[in-house]
Every structure is written in structure tokens, then in C-alpha cells.
Task: inverse folding
């Protein structure tokens, strides 16, 4: 393992759970923006790859929700994550950048909230 990889692994494993959620949101947003760029460049393979990466992150966020402890908040987040993933699938098939932008907007709002509580 080189120095950069070791640093990245250490920084991730020592972050608080809230900060990790922010990092995941940042990653998903980045991949969705890249998907839009590739869609506009008519590079379907790369567009699909970036959408898939964003969906992987969203699905991971959904999977780790603590439904018992989180109650109604966790239930609402689950619904949002399922909507986002489905919306991205439809955007991929329809080649619709606006649908991707809608998911980015939702994720940015959630990200703002997480940033505020993890300061």
C-alpha cells in the first residue's frame, strides 16, 4: 500500500459516521455530475458507469440505515434513496440529464443538513 492509499484509508476509518455520510453524498453528487457530462458528450458507456457508481453509493446509504433507532427519519430517508436510485435508472434509459439534476438537487439538500449536524 502506498502512502496516499494508506492516508485515504486512515482518514475514512477515523471519520465520524456523520462525516462519512457527507463524504458518500459528495461522491454520489460528483458521479452524477460526471454522468451528465458524459451524457452530453454522448458517451453512453461512461454515463452508465457513473450513474451506476452513484446508485451504488445511494444503495449503500440505504442499506446501512438503522430503521429501529432512526424511526420516521430513517423510513423517510429509505423512501428518498429508493426514489433516487429508481430515478437514476430511468434517467439512464431515457438519457435525460434533467432527471439526474433532480437527484443531485435532492442529495445536495440532504448533504447540507448532514454538514450542519456534523460540524
Result:
Amino acid at each position: 500500500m502506498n502512502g496516499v492509499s494508506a492516508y485515504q484509508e486512515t482518514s475514512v476509518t477515523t471519520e465520524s459516521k456523520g462525516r462519512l455520510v457527507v463524504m458518500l453524498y459528495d461522491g454520489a453528487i460528483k458521479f452524477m455530475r460526471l454522468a451528465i457530462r458524459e451524457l452530453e458528450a454522448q458517451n453512453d458507456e461512461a454515463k452508465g458507469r457513473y450513474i451506476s457508481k452513484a446508485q451504488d453509493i445511494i444503495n449503500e446509504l440505504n442499506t446501512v440505515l438503522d430503521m429501529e433507532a432512526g424511526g420516521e427519519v430513517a423510513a423517510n430517508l429509505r423512501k428518498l434513496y429508493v426514489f433516487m436510485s429508481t430515478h437514476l435508472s430511468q434517467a439512464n434509459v431515457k438519457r435525460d440529464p434533467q432527471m439526474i439534476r433532480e437527484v443531485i438537487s435532492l442529495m445536495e439538500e440532504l448533504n447540507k443538513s448532514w454538514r450542519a449536524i456534523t460540524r
Summary: The CA atoms of residues 12 and 20 lie 7 Å apart. The chain has a mean pLDDT of 90.
